[in-house]
Structures are given as C-alpha cells and as structure tokens.
Amino acid sequence: MTIAPKDAPKDAPSRHARAASRRRVLLILFCFFLVMGGIGFYVFTVRPLIKIWSARDWVETPCAVTSAGVQRSRSGKKTTYKAVICYSYQVNGTDYSSCQYDLMGFSISVT
C-alpha cells in the first residue's frame, strides 16, 4: 500500500490507472494488427511461394483444353472478370482434369 503525500492531487491514482489502461489498449491493438499482418503475409506471399517452389519439380505434360470462358460478376458499379479454363491430361496412364490454372487460387481483373 502506498501513501500519497498530503499535497498530492486526489485523482493521482486514477490518472495512473487511466494511463495504464491506455497502454494496455494500445498493446492489444498493436498485437491485433501484428497478427493480422502476419496472416496476410502468409496467405498472400508465403503460401503462393511454397506452391510455386513445389511446382518446379513437376514434369511437363501435354494437356487438352476442354473448355474456356470468362466469368463476369457485378458488384455495385464494378464489374470483375475471371478466366475459367478447364483442361485434362494424363500421367502414367491415369487421366486427370482440372480448372485450376493459377497457383495463387485467384486471377481477377477489375475494370
């Protein structure tokens, strides 16, 4: 227990409590933005780089494009376009088909 001098303002302990509370809030906000930034960095940088790095070992294989088109989406005044390309290929006698052509999982142009 601390004893304040007689001439100390009566609200001195509450000022310290408010300052500590502000520091705590700022620390929580800093940690929140640090974590969100880390998640964003992983999702938009690290994960695509890992996929690209692992794709270096893929064997080049011919494929046949089974369908191709453009998907249009409207949101308010903006229109977005996404290429949709489906293909099939064969590796070691096994047939495969897919519509994924981008290792990041998205390719959207906004006009």
Instruction: Tell me the quaternary state.
Output: single chain
Count the helices. How many?
1
Distance between the termini: 66 Å
Number of domains: 2
Mean of residue pLDDT?
A: 83
Taken from the alpha-carbon principal axes, the silhouette is elongated
Largest sheet, strands/sense/barrel: 4 strands, antiparallel
**Strand percent estimate:** 25-35%
**Helical coverage, percent range:** 25-40%
The SS-based structural class is: alpha+beta
Describe the structure.
- Strands 1, 2, 3 and 4 form a four-stranded antiparallel beta sheet that branches.
- By secondary structure, the chain is an alpha+beta fold.
- The mean pLDDT is 83.
- It folds into two domains: 13-58; 63-110, no CATH class.
- The chain is built from one helix and four strands, in the order αββββ.
In short:
The protein is of the alpha+beta class and 111 residues long.
Any chance you could write out the topology, listing elements then pairs?
Elements: H1 12-55, E1 63-75, E2 78-91, E3 94-98, E4 108-110
Antiparallel strand pairs: 1-2, 2-3, 2-4
Offer a few descriptive terms:
111 residues, 2 domains, 4 strands, alpha+beta
